[in-house]
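Is this the right way to post structure tokens for a design question? Let me know if I should format differently. Anyway, here goes:
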């Protein structure tokens, strides 16, 4: 994966301003006006990060994310949704299924740059984990962080994006107790605010999807969660 940031935005003024901001911080940016053009670019080069508007002409942002999710080559590319859609349901849909972060318009330039830097740091830190290339195997559970695939007893298990991120965090550090606030910080970053109850909901879903293996995600009362190896 390159150090390029792909900006998918149909408003040329916003696209130009965003590119200028990130270029001035030393990033290499490519701007496109549609999801279709973005897909063409992806065949040539997989970017380090995608900044994505949702209200695009033709294929919208959600449909574009579905295409990425269905591709082994593109499904792990981090995405920041940059859009005027600021409703709770829009944000929840984007974060639960597709995006790593969500910035509503209009945005402050410093916030945009800080979010981009924070996400790239998190992704880079995960990539440096010694076992990330080979994935993780624990009994009947196998996880591949590069393809974001999960298998239980050889059977593939479909997880939402945040469910996978939480599971990978727990399994990467078996027996370690992860407080809820740390899980949020590791998954979303220092400046991201979601209720700790959201973590509980995702853990509940994870346990159901994983079946018997889900019982190994243990609750530490009053603190958080750990994965029993």
């Amino acid at each position: 994966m390159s150090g390029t940031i792909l900006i998918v935005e149909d408003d040329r003024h916003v696209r130009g301003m965003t590119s200028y901001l990130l270029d001035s911080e030393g990033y290499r940016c490519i701007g496109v006006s549609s999801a279709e053009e973005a897909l063409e670019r992806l065949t040539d080069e997989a970017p380090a990060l995608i900044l994505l508007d949702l209200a695009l002409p033709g294929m919208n942002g959600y449909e574009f994310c579905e295409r990425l999710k269905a591709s082994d080559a593109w499904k792990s590319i981090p995405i920041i949704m940059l859009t005027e859609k600021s409703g709770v349901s829009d944000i929840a849909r984007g974060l639960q299924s597709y995006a790593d972060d969500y910035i509503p318009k209009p945005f402050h330039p410093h916030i945009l740059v800080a979010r981009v830097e924070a996400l790239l740091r998190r992704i880079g830190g995960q990539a440096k984990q010694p076992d990330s290339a080979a994935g993780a195997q624990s009994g009947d559970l196998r996880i591949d962080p590069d393809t974001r695939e999960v298998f239980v007893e050889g059977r593939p298990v479909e997880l939402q994006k945040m469910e996978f991120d939480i599971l990978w965090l727990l399994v990467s550090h078996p027996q370690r107790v992860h407080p809820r606030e740390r899980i949020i910080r590791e998954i979303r970053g220092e400046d991201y605010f979601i209720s700790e109850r959201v973590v509980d909901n995702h853990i509940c879903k994870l346990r159901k999807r994983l079946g018997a293996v889900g019982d190994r995600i243990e609750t530490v009362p009053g603190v958080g969660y750990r994965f029993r190896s």
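Format looks fine. Someone answered above. Worth noting: The two ends are 32 Å apart (CA to CA). Confidence is low (pLDDT under 50) at residues 125-134.
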